[in-house]
């Protein structure tokens, strides 16, 4: 069993590039995610969970936003 992964995710809601996941060129585990959905009524958070689950090949229930529900910088935990 693989341990869980904690990521720092910078979300860009309302982007024309989306949906797109870009890996940052840094030492820590961080991603930039471009989403077409706007940050209204949790639509961007739902889209983020769906996109990360598809990107990492896990179920949506395995992706959880730990911190930053109302921020563009979020801390996400991915269980496998």
Automatic annotation (TrEMBL):
Descriptive protein name: UPF0235 protein SAMN05216282_1126
Family from the record: Belongs to the UPF0235 family.
InterPro entries assigned: DUF167, YggU-like_sf
GO CC annotation terms, alphabetical: cytoplasm
SUPFAM superfamilies: YggU-like
Cross-referenced SMART domains: DUF167 (SM01152)
HAMAP family, per database record: UPF0235
PANTHER family: UPF0235 PROTEIN C15ORF40
NCBIfam families the UniProt entry points to: DUF167 family protein (TIGR00251)
């Amino acid at each position: 069993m693989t341990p869980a992964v904690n990521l720092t995710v910078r979300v860009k809601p309302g982007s024309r590039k989306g949906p797109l996941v870009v890996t940052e060129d840094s030492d820590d585990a961080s991603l930039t995610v471009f989403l077409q959905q706007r940050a209204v009524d949790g639509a961007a958070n739902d889209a983020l969970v769906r996109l990360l689950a598809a990107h990492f090949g896990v179920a949506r229930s395995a992706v959880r936003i730990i911190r930053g529900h109302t921020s563009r910088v979020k801390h996400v935990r991915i269980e496998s």
